Amino acid sequence: MQEKLSRRLLPFYMKLPVLWAFIILSVLGQLLWVAVISQDVRIDLRWSSFGFGLGIALGFMQGKWTSRLWQQSYLKVLKRQITFWDAKGAKFLTFYTCAALGLPIFCPLLLHSLDTLTLVGIQSYVFGFIGAMNVPLLLWVRRIPK
Asked: What does residue 38 show for φ and ψ, rounded to 5 degrees?
């Protein structure tokens, strides 16, 4: 096996066209979501903007940490020298991702608050998180030699 990481060694979901598709689909999803919810005059679109912005910030952090983790440990995982779980920072990254995506979704259920405003912000948050986490990954993959 090679000693340097190349794009050929990355899994399908880390290929450039797939990352571009994830980013474009999340932005398109947010635009369609805003178009649909703006039809209801009772909905305040500020919740959607807040959720999308928060999702972008937390998703970009997650993507940056993931790209650093893969940069340091992906070849070792491929060579079966370590498991992904044993890579430095993998446990914290997994916990962070579960918390960053899970807490906003489960908090309204736990608080018994399923009002429309909360759900509008959560959906936008998920679109922002997914789109933004793929941007640093895309930038990292572009730096890897073919």
From this structure: -75, -10
Higher pLDDT, 118 or 33: 33
Q: What is the model's pTM?
A: 0.84
pLDDT digits (tens, 9 = 90+) for 72-112: 888 788 888 888 888 888 899 999 999 998 888 777 777 66
CA dihedral 13→49→42→110, nearest 10 degrees, is: 60
Report d(CA 55, CA 118) in Å as an integer.
Answer: 14
**Residue 80 zone, left/alpha/beta (φ > 0; ψ -120 to 50; rest):** left
- What is the secondary structure of 32-94 as a DSSP string? HHHHHHTTSTT--HHHHHHHHHHHHHHHHHHHHHHHHHHHHHHHHHHTTSS-GGGSTTHHHHH
Cβ proximity of 79 and 9 under 8 Å: no
